[in-house]
Amino acid sequence: MSALTVFLSLLFFTTLGTAYVKGYDFVRSRKPGSLVTFYLIIATVRMLFTATVVAIYAYFSDDRECTVSFVAMFMGMYVLMMIVTLIMRH
Known about the structure:
Elements: H1 3-30, H2 35-60, H3 64-89
Helix pairs in contact: 1-2, 1-3, 2-3
């Protein structure tokens, strides 16, 4: 796995995490009763984006070992992002 792949993965999860934090602050300041709906929507979007990136990488990758290590890294980053954003906002 290349350094570019790791960098782009970090950038992807940083962007998703930032969108959640900023969106959470925005919804909390405007309509706090909608936080549960916001969380469910953003969790679904993050899950779909993550699954899409993994599927695209698996489709275009030629090396099975590299694909398995990418999926393991990506899912680990997903779990870490979920933990960090939940700790920051709850």
